[in-house]
Design brief:
Elements (H helix, E strand, L loop, with lengths): L2 E10 L9 E10 L2 E7 L5 H4 L2 E6 L4 E4 L1 E3 L11 H8 L4 H6 L4 H10 L2 H16 L3 E7 L6 H17 L3 E9 L10 H17 L5 E6 L6 H13 L3 E6 L7 H7 L4 E4 L5 H10 L2 E4 L1 H6 L8 H7 L3 E3 L13 H10 L5 H7 L2 H6 L16 E4 L6 H4 L6 E6 L2 E4 L1
Parallel strand pairs: 1-4, 1-5, 6-7, 7-8, 8-9, 9-10, 10-11, 11-12, 12-13
Antiparallel strand pairs: 1-2, 2-3, 5-14, 14-15, 15-16
Helix pairs in contact: 5-6, 7-8, 9-10
The structure holds N-(iminomethyl)-L-glutamic acid and fe (iii) ion.
Length: about 400
């Protein structure tokens, strides 16, 4: 396998204890899809460099780990700009959902769309995220809500990973909303979505299981049944928790050693303690907070003090977060949630990797995947500082480069 040297770089490795894992005169040696060596260029041994086929002079640019968007609902039919207008006329997200709009209107459009059409639309969105440095993307189902339509959405997610230069992880979110054919029979629907789980897993379509534990979603007791089924099948769980109210979903998720709890604006002190004990990542979603004009902030300082790792993601979806800019999310994590620029970047790299259960990425270190971004900035803090400017020069995914 040929070795490639990327030199004359400033590296934000996010590895080790130094701020940003900073290496001023750095170099990276890759072999195939892995990082073979990373460090001060002067320390690269000639033996290791021997056999290097290509050299890329990065001209002093900043290199970070490839971005990881660990929470999206990228595959869906239609869009919901009309509901945006309704909200501007005074309707709330919950009122629209209870009136049969919201998630259920996207379910109707997703069921109607062909698999190819869903793929075409989702690929465009994925390319927008990749254009700002995303190398790993999580995609949830939850707009199909029948075995056939959930499978269709999840197959599209898998196809994105095959046809585009990025890694895609899929989460089964059957417990997202109640489909119309189960109206008034919510427990029956929970049973059905649990029954579909082994089949979807058997088709190789499920990496983790998610649920929406909320007044307009599923109760903690119903969420528990979903998680018990997942655990029996050996699948990891995550949860949309405490987004619109405190349901105690976080404590439940922690009981099942959830990879992550996401949203968390209404998270309680008990929930924070439970997450700290179970090692669950807090995924914060500033796009949904902003777009819903939420005013209750997630308890960032308390999470920080408890040592709970915080990830940042786009939550791209047509209802609450139609954003396709991970860099804007870094900025909003700082301006709205008061994370530091370094916390924000760690949130979209190393902690996002952990929220997906991926140990092979999120930092620049020997042995990890060669997923990294080359940026036209003088310091990585600028990634969170600008908004509406994309300084990506090059995205390298699995050792393969695509320029911008
Ligand atoms: O993450 N909270 C539930 N799910 C999405 C919203 C989905 C939708 O409105 O279509 C979210 O905010
Ligand atoms: Fe979500």
């Amino acid at each position: 396998m040929s070795r490639v040297l990327w030199h004359n770089a400033q590296l934000a490795t996010l590895d080790g204890d130094a701020p940003w894992g900073w290496i001023a005169n750095g170099a990276l040696l890759t072999e195939g899809d892995r990082i073979l060596w990373v460090g001060e260029a002067a320390q690269l041994s000639p033996e290791l460099a021997a056999g290097t086929l290509r050299r890329h002079d990065l001209r002093g640019a900043v290199v970070t780990p490839g971005l990881i968007d660990c929470h999206t609902h990228l595959v869906y039919g239609g869009q919901r700009a009309h509901e945006f207008e309704l909200r501007l006329q005074g309707a709330s997200y919950e009122e629209i959902a209870r009136a049969g709009g919201g998630i259920r209107s996207t379910v109707a459009a997703t069921r109607e769309a062909s698999e190819d059409e869903l793929f075409k639309q989702a690929a465009k969105r994925a390319q927008a995220l990749m254009g700002e440095g995303v190398c790993t993307l999580e995609v949830k189902s939850g707009y199909g809500l029948s075995l056939i339509d959930e499978a269709k959405q999840l197959r599209v997610a898998r196809r994105l990973g095959k046809e585009l230069a990025l890694t895609v992880r899929s989460s089964y979110l059957g417990a997202h909303a109640l489909p119309p054919e189960f109206a008034g029979r919510q427990d029956d629907y929970v049973q059905a979505l649990c029954d579909w789980m082994p089949e979807l897993q058997g088709l190789g379509l499920v990496d983790a299981v998610d649920a929406f534990c909320e007044g307009i979603g599923f109760t903690p007791a119903q969420t528990r049944r979903v998680f018990e089924t997942a655990k029996r099948l050996g699948l990891s769980v995550k949860l949309h928790a405490e987004q619109l109210s405190d349901q105690g979903g976080t404590q439940l998720a922690a009981e099942f050693s959830a990879l992550s709890c996401d949203h968390l604006e209404y998270l309680s002190a008990e929930g924070i303690g439970a997450m700290a004990r179970s090692g669950t990542v807090a995924v914060l979603l500033p796009g949904a907070y902003y777009f819903l004009r939420e005013t209750k902030l997630p308890p960032v300082q308390a999470l920080r003090e408890a040592g709970v790792p915080m990830a940042i993601a786009t939550d791209h979806n047509p209802g609450t977060s139609p954003v396709l800019s991970p860099l804007l999310m870094l900025n909003m994590a700082c301006t709205l949630f008061r994370l530091t620029p370094e916390e924000a970047l760690r949130g979209m790299t190393m902690h996002a990797a952990r929220a997906l259960g991926l140990a092979d990425r999120g930092r620049l270190a020997a042995g990890l995947r060669a997923d990294f971004c080359v940026w036209d900035v003088a310091h990585p803090r600028e990634l969170a500082y600008y908004f509406g400017r994309n300084p990506l020069l090059q995205r390298v995914c699995g050792g393969k480069s695509s320029g911008n």
